[in-house]
Amino acid sequence: MARPPPCRRGVSRPVCGRNESLSRFEACPNFSPMKVLVQNSLWWPQVIGGAEISSHLLGRELRRRGLRADAVASTGRTTGQDGLRIRPTDDGLGTVFEAPAHGLYDFFPTEEARSGILTRGLNHFAAVHSSRWEKLFGEVLERSQPDIVHTNNLVGLTPAIWSAARRHGIPVIHTIRDYHLLCPRTTLLRSNGADCQNPPLPCRLLARLKRRRTGGLRMVTAPTRFVLDKHLAAGGFPGAQPHVIPNALEEWPAEIPTRRAGGPVRGLFLGQIDTHKGIPELLAALGALLADETCADLQFDFAGRGPLVTEVESFCAANPQRLRYHGQVTGDEKRALLAACGFMVVPSVWAEPFSRSIIDGFSWGMPAIGARRGGIPEVITADRDGLVVEPSAQELARAMRALVLDPHKRLAMGSRARQGASRFTLAAQVDRFIRLYETMAGGSA
Question: 382 and 390 in contact (C-beta within 8 Å)?
Answer without folding.
Answer: no
